[in-house]
């Protein structure tokens, strides 16, 4: 994995954070203390773990941080789906975030596959 590819992952994650922050500004006031921080925290966790995955030189640490980014991204996608079903966001905003998160997910999957250190039969390989 080249540093350019890792930089692209972090850049895409930062753009997703910006999109989530802009979207949650329009949420109703009653969602200010539960839903808004939850979505923003998941987005920031994705960015943080992607950046840490890029910064660590040891392959096992990169794998751990990038896997955490994927898990946070999955949680963010679930919560965005719930927000859409409760009409907290427009379908256009939802589709925009789905596209951004799908692009990031594919980038993270490629980065994890390129590490090639995990034996799927042994989850405690480290």
What does this structure look like?
By secondary structure, the chain is mainly α. The chain has one domain (3-115): 23S rRNA-intervening sequence (de novo design (two linked rop proteins), Up-down Bundle). The protein has four helices and no strands. The longest helix has 27 residues, at 59-85. The radius of gyration is 15 Å and the shape is elongated.
- Based on secondary structure, the structural category is mainly alpha
Please name the fourth-level CATH homologous superfamily.
Answer: 23S rRNA-intervening sequence
Number of separate domains: 1
Shape: elongated
Oligomer state of the chains in this structure: single chain
SSE topology string: HHHH
Number of strands: 0
Compile the SSE list and pairings.
Blueprint: H1 3-24, H2 35-55, H3 59-85, H4 91-115
Helix pairs in contact: 1-2, 1-4, 2-3, 3-4
Summarize the structure.
The chain has 126 residues and is mainly alpha-helical. It has 4 helices and no strands.
Tags for this model:
single chain; 126 residues; mainly alpha; de novo design (two linked rop proteins); 75% helix
């Amino acid at each position: 994995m080249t540093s350019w590819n890792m930089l692209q992952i972090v850049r895409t994650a930062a753009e997703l954070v910006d999109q989530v922050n802009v979207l949650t500004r329009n949420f109703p006031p009653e969602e200010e203390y539960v839903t808004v921080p939850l979505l923003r925290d998941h987005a920031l966790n994705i960015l943080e773990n992607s950046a840490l995955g890029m910064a660590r030189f040891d392959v096992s640490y990169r794998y751990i941080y990038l896997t955490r980014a994927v898990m946070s991204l999955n949680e963010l996608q679930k919560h965005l789906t719930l927000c859409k079903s409760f009409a907290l966001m427009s379908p256009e905003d939802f589709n925009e975030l789905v596209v951004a998160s799908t692009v990031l997910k594919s980038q993270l999957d490629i980065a994890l596959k390129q590490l090639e250190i995990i034996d799927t039969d042994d989850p405690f390989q480290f």
